[in-house]
Amino acid sequence: MSMEESEMDISSLMQGRQGYLWKLGGGQEKGSKWNKRWFVLRDNVLMYFVKPSEFTGFRDKPSGVVLLEECNVRAREHQQTGENRLFHFSLVHNSGEETIVLGAEYEKEMLEWMQAVRTSRMCITDPEAAKQSEEQRAAAAQLELQGAREKRSLSEDALRSIERDLEAVQLEHRQLEGEKEKAEKELKELMARFKLRKALLHWRHRKLTLSFRSLISMVFQERIERALQIKAVADAKIARMQHEFDQAQLARRKAEAAKRKSDEMLARELQLKKECEAAHREAQKLLSAETERTKTAAEKIVELENLGASTAQVDSKEKEELLQLQEMLLNLRSEAETMQLQLKVQPPKAKGAGEGEEQ
């Protein structure tokens, strides 16, 4: 850098300065609200306005004034405020008055404002600097400016190194992206080949299956027909056997029904036989009684005849009694013969009826 450029920079710093700065609300170091104001530096006075249009000269009434006599300028740690990262510096008076905390949006701007305040008239950074002349303070400002520039060059070197690293990373990223695209392309080609091969194998499998079926049909056609004939005969035989089985089942059901009916008729025959036997015994008893009565009547007739009572000598009343007795005797004999015939005929009829029912 030439002497003319350095002298121009120093002279520009020695002149008044104005521009936007951020001011911490309340004028306290521990404040939280930042206000953007238009600052104007003239000699040992730092004024600030809400907007630039409010400043037209020294006669205008500013929003605030800071006297820079016996004022120290100090840089503060950078802090994050909202979406903007500000570079802070403060103005502290030796008398212990309130501290003014200001912030610039760029580091270069902060350094220029700090240097402008230091080089302003009647402004010192420490008590010993009050004894220094304007040339000495300009030299000190030049040294500080040079140090700031060196720091800036170091920062720029570091930034360039970071940019080179970033470019290398981006180049590697682009290479990886290219390799990724190439791999995806190869994968798509492999998938297309796989699908094509799969379709060919499927078509070949179907073709081989159809060929095998046709070959089997040609070679084993005779055996297949013979097997179909045997199957038809077996099906007919099974159908016939099923019909016979159904007939046998029907005959079995009929036989069971006939057996049940025969058992019922046999039970009925036994019941009729018991009833006939009871009737036979009753008829035997009646026959015995009638025989006794007939015998008694015959003995009476014989007794009457033995007594010599003839028919002519007997009166009409006794004659009628004798006739009635004879008629009763004849009736009893006919009834006894009828009952004997019934007893002889009824059992064979019942037996014949039971045999007919069984058949």
Describe the 3D structure.
About 65% of the residues lie in helices and about 15% in strands. A hairpin with a 2-residue loop joins β2 and β3 (about 45-50). α2 (about 105-120) packs antiparallel against α3 (about 135-220) and α4 (about 220-305) runs antiparallel to α5 (about 315-359). It contains five helices and eight strands, in the order αββββββββαααα. Strands 1, 2, 3, 4, 5, 6, 7 and 8 form an eight-stranded antiparallel beta sheet that branches. With about 350 residues, it is of the alpha+beta class. One of its GO terms (biological process) is endosome organization. InterPro entries: Boi1/Boi2-like (IPR045188), PH-like_dom_sf (IPR011993), PH_domain (IPR001849). This is PH domain-containing protein.
Task: Kindly list the characteristics that best describe this protein.
14% strand, alpha+beta, disordered C terminus, eight-stranded antiparallel sheet, single chain, elongated, 359 residues, disordered N terminus, 5 helices, Boi1/Boi2-like, PH_domain
